[in-house]
Amino acid sequence: MKHMNSEVKEERTSNKKRIDLFLVPIVLIAAFLNLFKIWTDEYANAYYTAAVKSMLQSLHNFFYASFDPGGYVTIDKPPVVFWIQTISAKIFGFHGWSVILPQALAGIGSVLLLYVLVKRTFGVWAGRFAALAMALTPIVPAVSRTNNIDSMLVFTLLVATWMLFRAVRTAKFGWVLAAFAMIGVAFNMKMLQAYMVLPAFYVFYVVATKINWKKKIAFLTTATALMLAVSVSWAVVVDSTSADKRPYMGSSQTNSVLELAFGYNGINRLTGNTSVTGSSHKQSAQTEQQTASSETKQNSNSSADSSQSSNQRKSSSSQKMQAPGGGNQNGMFNTGNPGPFRLFQKGLSDQISWLLPFVIFSIVGLFAGVKFKGSYTTKQKESLFWLAWLLPVAVFFSIAGFFHQYYLIMLAPPIAAFAGAGAVALWSMYKQHNGWKSWLLPGGILTTAALQVYIMSPYVSSIGVAPIAGVGALGVILALVLAVRKQRKNSLTNYLGAAAMVVLLAMPAYWAMTPIIYGGNSMLPSAGPDSSSGMGGPPSTATNSKQSGFNGMQPPGSSSGNSSSNNQMQPPSGSSNGGQMPGGSSNNGQMQPPSGSSNSGEMQMQGGSSNNSQMPNSSSSKSSSSKRKSGGMNAEVNKKLLNYLTKNNTGEKYLFATTDSTSAAPYIIKTGEPVMAMGGFSGSDPILTVSKLKAMIKKGEVKYFYLSGMGKGGQSDVITWIKENSKEIPSSKWQSTSSSAQQGPSGNGTLYEITLK
Fold first, then answer.
1. Average pLDDT taken over every residue of the chain
2. How open is the CA angle 370-183-126, to the nearest 5 degrees?
3. What pLDDT score does 5 carry?
4. Cα 311 to the chain's mean position, in Å?
5. How many beta carbons lie within 10 A of that of residue 343, not counting itself?
6. What is the rounded radius of gyration, in angstroms, for the C-alpha atoms of the chain?
7. Which residues contact 435 (CB under 8 A, 6 or more apart)?
8. What SS3 class is residue 289?
9. pTM score, two decimals?
């Protein structure tokens, strides 16, 4: 160990004077995985991209993170990340890549930060391997290639970690304040998710600082108070502002940021009780899944790269695939069933768990010989920090009732840190023949290879048998050879150890590339051969590329193909159609759009073929375009509808109103005109009342309403009143006649006009 410590000091001194040449290719790998082809995603997650378009138009919209240019409703998250995205769009122009760029750079920055954090204590090789493991963790680039928040959140928390480590090394209270204030900033990115690292911060500061208990308590209390103040600063300002002077707080039920933070984006994620008022938020959850899944077909039509993915996902259309949470037992959004081994279930394991067995062996090695009483080494203290980050977050994802696969990026830093620190520690124990500890390295290699074979096995039809057999065979052989050669010290043993690390990172590296190879899903990002579907499970059973994911749907006016499927989707609440939530057992796993719509529009699961569902969308699919017009929502507009609305606008503030953000987002992105999503993101927010809508119509703020089968939720009375007091616009005036299908999660829609004196 003395030799290792002196080696670390020598490496630390030498690396202060020059760039680590081994780090350069690691950073280039991270840059490639995070940046390559982001310019092909024209709209990214359209819900958030529309907000950036709106925020560019006024400081009022910018401060409140308004979804629409009219300042009617906000998005469902705090504004900090979207402030950064808006600044990026202001500098580089409004594009899909310009709103993705900050997250991609954050992903690269996280790799560099982890290198710095691990290298200082565990040595340069530990830092290199930790950085590489972070770069190749599949969910990291998958999320970083979108305009979702999580990549920036993790980067911010790693900045806070760097500040905390510096606070301990320098014994300066200012760095403690800065570290906890940074967590407060992270709270204003994704609310309570930022607080998941707090156990690590508290435990590490208590154990690592050499000051008396009174000062520790005083410093932590003050730092926590500052963190809370920073956390709620924006919320207090917003909630203190009169409701008529700001947008409605999207996805809340009481128009409150604090309710959103501690309810919908907080405790409800753990309990799974995403329903706040009746079934409204359950509808929101299903809407989000349907919206994201509908992106698959657009990806498959976008380019040659996507067509390669589609061909690999082909199989018999007669094979039925149930909705997430149904018979496939993968839970809502394919996040598995709660339990101690949830992170090893399909849908989650291939996103984050590739190195978990090796991490477990590393933890055993790093903490071997630690006594509860007595002094701890710096390595042990920092290992405790990463363990206090890893365990609570892993427990949360093991028991949580509602989350998305890409939230698992929160586990990437501690897993990568332990992979790097553990690789060096276990190698040292192996070469020094430290009794039972010398067996940890071959044991970690063997069990990790076995898990990777298990992870890949559902994808044999996509990736073939060779890589699965190769990883398994090489893992077993290298582990056994290392075990046999345990008493020998020569260069061959060193090469065998390096080869084992390469084998363990080979398939995570491939998985990390899948969003580039097959296309990604910008709304529900995940990695894997089916990454464009956003479903994160084994490959779909669609008969062709146009049927992968939820089957393609046509915009209003598109000629509907006559086809049938018995995999229809039914509404999640009581209706004339006897709707079922995902996982319901009736109707053979059938589901329809989540509302009581009486129209005949059908939404198909994988393997279906109906094109009856329609949406105010593009009149042409542009399948030959090099751009991916995805974003989890309809990324094109119906030009005929747009022309009609523009021509007949007589000074109204809103171009038109619709039930939810899915219909509104493409028009906001394309035109920059205010479009009212009456019920917020999913159509379930109780924003409007009949009397309020009457007043808006009388003021000349809105007169056109596009109503589809989506999102009645908390606005049933409003929709009923609209239908009873409006004039239906003949479809021939605004519907397209194109036969090319364009994806969309809504059912057939109708355009209404209301004028009140």
1. 80
2. 40
3. 46
4. 26
5. 18
6. 27
7. none
8. helix
9. 0.82
